[in-house]
Every structure is written in C-alpha cells, then in structure tokens.
Amino acid sequence: MSAPPPLNDSFGRTMRDLRVSITDRCNFRCLYCLPETEEAANFYRGKFDALKNPQPTLTPIVREWKPKSALLTYEEIERVVRVAVGLGVEKVRITGGEPLLRRGVPDLVARLAPISGIRDLAMTTNGAHFATHAVALRAAGLQRVSFSLDSLDHDNFKRITGRDGLRAVLAGIAQAKELGFAPVKVNAVVIRGLNDHELECLAGFAREQAVSLRFIEFMPLDSGRAWLRDLVVPGREILARLQARFDLRPVVSENQSETAKRWTFADGRGEIGIIAPVTEPFCGHCNRLRLTADGKIRTCLFSLHEHDLKPLLRGNASDTDLAARLREIVLGKEDRHHIGEPSFQQPERTMSCIGG
Ligand code: SAM
Ligand code: SF4
Ligand code: SF4
Prior knowledge:
The protein has about 350 residues and is an alpha/beta fold. It has one domain (about 15-355): TIM Barrel (Alpha-Beta Barrel). The chain has helices spanning about 40-50, 75-85, 105-110, 130-140, 155-160, 165-180, 200-210, 235-245, 310-315, 320-330, 350-355, and strands spanning about 15-20, 90-95, 120-125, 145-150, 185-190, 210-215, 250, 260-265, 270-275, 290, 295-300, 305-310. It has a twelve-stranded mixed beta sheet with strand order 7-8-9-6-5-4-3-2-1-10-11-12. The structure holds S-adenosylmethionine and iron/sulfur cluster (2 copies). S-adenosylmethionine binds near residues 95, 125 and 216.
C-alpha cells in the first residue's frame, strides 16, 4: 500500500514536527512566560515607566490549572501521535508547562518511542526535576532533551524564574550529557536589561560544556501581556556581540525548517544558535503543529483559534476520521505571525499552555 499524502497546508508547507504539551502546570514563574512574582512585576513596571507606556495588568493572577479530566490521557496522546506520524510527522517533542510535573512521563515516552516513523523524540524541560527522571527517560527511549537556562548567576536565575533552581538545572544538564542524550540543547530567552549582560557567559558555557546553546528572542506570549518590543534583543545584535568575543564559524544546514541559525566555536567544542522569530521570522518554512495538554491542535504559536480533538478521541471516531480532521485543520494553518503590526492580537493562551 502506498503511503498517504503528507500533511500539507495551503501555503505549500508540509508538517513534520509535532509538539505535544502534556500539562499546563509549572513549578517556575519565568518572567517571559508566567510573570507572576513581585520581582517580575517590578521589572516590567520599571520598563513601562521609563518608556511612558500604559501599565500592563500585573496584578497577581490566581492561576487555575486544567483539571486532570480535561487532559488527554497518555493513551489518547499516543493515538494522536501515531495518526500524525502516519501522515508524515517525523519529529515529536514532549513539552508543557513543565512536562516532568506530570506523573509517569517515562511511560508516555515508552509508548511513543516504538512508533515507527518517529525519527526524533525529544523533550523540553526547565530541568528542575530532570535528574530524578533522567535514567528512566533514557531507558524508555527519549533521544534528546532541551533545557531552559537563561542565567548562570544564582540571583539572576531566581529573579527570572522566580525559583532558586540553578544548581538543579546544571545538575540536570550534566546528567543528560553523561547518559548520552545528544546533542544536549539549552534555550535562553534574551531580554534587554534582564539577562543580556550574560550573553558572553552563556556562550562560554556552551563551549565549556560542549552543548548547543540557543538564544531566543522574547515573543509576546507571556501571561502578564507585558511584552514590549524594546525588551527584544534582536538576533543580529546577539550575533554581533558574540562575534566580537568568540571566533565563530557558521554551520551550514540543509534543513530549511530549522528555526535556529547556528555557529560553532573555532575549536569545535559546543555550538550557539540564534532563534529570531520576531526580527527575522521563519514562518515561510514552518513545519510545526502543536497539541495542547487538553487536546487542542494549534496550527501556529499565535493562533487565535484552536481545534479540539477531544470529541473525536472520546467519541466513536476512527483513526481514519482523525487523520481526515488533521488534514482539514492543517489546511487552515496561518501563513505567518503578525507581531508588530497594528492588527496583532496576542493569543489568549500563554506559552506555558501552548507548549514551546
Ligand atoms: N517548561 C519547559 C521549559 O521551560 O523548558 C517547557 C515549556 S516552555 C513553554 C518551552 C520553551 O518556551 C522554553 O524554552 C522557554 O524558554 C520558551 N518560552 C516561554 N515563553 C517564551 C516567550 N515569551 N518568548 C520566547 N520563548 C519563550
Ligand atoms: Fe514554566 Fe517553562 Fe514557562 Fe518557565 S518557560 S514558566 S519553566 S513553562
Ligand atoms: Fe510557525 Fe506561527 Fe511560529 Fe510562524 S509564528 S514559525 S507560522 S508557529
């Protein structure tokens, strides 16, 4: 039997990458994602005052997490992944919220790893609980892991994440390397006046630790709706700063859908990447779909509409019905984001619910 046609959208892009959020909960309060600490409010207040902008709503949020019954079970997630892989998806990333807050994640990995057609099974984590689960995740078949790490300074780490967790994250990264997850990636969201003074230190860390450190521009997906263009450090500026300090060699990639532009250090140890969705959007090559923890497909990070798969999953729909629905959803994928345009509307759900 010939393979079914791939998941094509109406702009000629083919979906190959599925990000699966398994929980909306998080134990961190990152200033760019869930800015719900007094420190975060103070940081933004200062910026808004200086720029004479109207203040965003930074009143403490009483957060309501989704109840367990609203979340897809691991069995349901496995089914969606299996159907999507049958339609040509090759990369699957488990994310959140903080995925390792959900019980039994190695069980989910063990369900997904044998699905034939997955070439890359990865996870994004804040790293706080990684060391506890690392061996089980590896044994279950997880291939790669990306950590979030925005600062190498204990106080600044706490200021950014709202938690005293730097030591645990560094231990998690060390353990991932020891266990042979490769390459270990580290994501740092760069925010002007918050951690941009640490760019060179973070790049130095990539080289010392032989990891791939990706600097990411701050996107308007924060729960405080406090994003300001002035807080974005453009990718070009990040690169100029790093080139002034290090001898960097560009990495030529044949993968057009890769979001990061990458460089290695002259001595070949470690790598840096720059992901610049705001100032150098890569929507034209976007091949990603996202499944939220409560079973909605998002065709773009900035989608204003979601597509609920739960009625199909919990009704009598067959896998063929599910596949047909996925095809239909993908046809409506947005061509690009509209950050910076007057029509731009920040989606209701934040990065912690969408799954980065
Ligand atoms: N909790 C896990 C973590 O932090 O790695 C996984 C989920 S988190 C939403 C996934 C990624 O999204 C993280 O690497 C984080 O840095 C990134 N992220 C969150 N909010 C962002 C924003 N407003 N702009 C850019 N990246 C963001
Ligand atoms: Fe949690 Fe990740 Fe968002 Fe930070 S970026 S608040 S760790 S979901
Ligand atoms: Fe893809 Fe939307 Fe991100 Fe553009 S903004 S790269 S279309 S998810």
